[in-house]
Every structure is written in structure tokens, then in C-alpha cells.
Design a protein that fits this description.
With about 120 residues, the protein is mainly alpha-helical. The protein is about 45% helix and about 5% strand. The N and C termini lie far apart (about 60 Å). This is RNA-directed DNA polymerase from mobile element jockey.
């Protein structure tokens, strides 16, 4: 037996008509959110320009990396659990744990991280 299809209720647009298709609903909802979350007017245009520049810059959500010491790096490598999926760089815990324990290799990793 088929389950009855649940109908989503239509949304009223700004012009007073009903938005029935998914595209019309999305556009109506986007217009509503744009009005609701519009910042209050500002008299300081330099601040507005700085905010616009920051928001349009790439990687705005990436915070600067904290300086890591050699000891912290080696401790974190020791704590890694093997068998976990590698990150986006495809470097897994097994590879990092198999590195020789010489300072040269960890220093190289640190220089990559701080670059």
C-alpha cells in the first residue's frame, strides 16, 4: 500500500499570489530572509566598505593557524588513531607515525604548516 504524498502548503508571495512551485517558494523565502537579515543603515561608510571587503574575500571563515611547537606536533602524531580515514590531503595516521623520529622531518612538517 502506498503512503499518501504529503503536500507542502503554498507560501504567499509579496504580491499576494500563492507560490506553489519549489522555485517560487525558494525565491519568496530568499526575499523574506533578505529583508529580515538586512543590517541597519550605517553612517560610517568606511566601516561598511571594510565589512564588504572582508565578506567578499576568499576563505573568510579560515582563522589563522596557531603557532605549533615541535613538541606539540610530535605529541599529536603519537595520539593519532590508526585506521581512520585520511583528510583532504590524503595523509593518514599510519604515514605520519612511520616517519623517522628525527627532528628534521618534524621540522619540515612544521615549516609546511607555518607556510
Amino acid at each position: 500500500m502506498k503512503r499518501p504524498k504529503q503536500q507542502a502548503t503554498p507560501i504567499k508571495t509579496q504580491m499576494g499570489t500563492w507560490a506553489r512551485s519549489d522555485g517560487e517558494k525558494a525565491a519568496t523565502f530568499a526575499d523574506h530572509l533578505q529583508k529580515v537579515f538586512e543590517p541597519p543603515p550605517s553612517n560610517d561608510h568606511s566601516v561598511d566598505n571594510e565589512i564588504d571587503k572582508y565578506l567578499s574575500s576568499p576563505n573568510q571563515l579560515c582563522l589563522p593557524l596557531k603557532h605549533v611547537t615541535l613538541y606539540e606536533l610530535s605529541r599529536e602524531i603519537r595520539k593519532l588513531k590508526e585506521g581512520k580515514c585520511p583528510g583532504y590531503d590524503l595523509v593518514d595516521a599510519t604515514l605520519l607515525k612511520q616517519l623517522p623520529k628525527k627532528k628534521v622531518y618534524y621540522s619540515f612538517l612544521l615549516s609546511l604548516m607555518h607556510a
